[in-house]
Design a protein that fits this description.
It comes from Pseudomonas tehranensis. Residues 1-25 form the signal peptide. With 102 residues, the protein is an alpha+beta fold. It has a domain at 29-99: Roll (Nuclear Transport Factor 2, Chain: A). The chain is 22% helix and 24% strand. The strands form two sheets. A three-stranded antiparallel β-sheet has the order 3-4-5, with no helix packed on it. A two-stranded antiparallel sheet has the order 1-2.
Length: 102
Amino acid sequence: MRNPTLIASLVLITGLAAFGPVAQAVEATGDAVEHSPNNGRRLVEADRTPAEYQRSDKAIKNWKEKGLEAPEEGAQWVQIHDKYVMVVIASGRILKITPTTR
């Protein structure tokens, strides 16, 4: 094996290994929701929720008691983990994300 090829291969492998921890160091903020461990997708405003959160059985009926504003026409509040999310029923688009109060 030629020496320059071996050195180039080692440099490439070392460079790729250095990017792994950087990609995992993303920090969650209060304006996003971790959807599920299955796909690791973060939901943010203007994103689309999975179809299950568009169903009426997922709607929060007592939104006033939880201190939430009235949902916009054609939208509903749902809870995804520790956040309340206002979702357009027809499209699943997220209008607002609010932390839950305990």
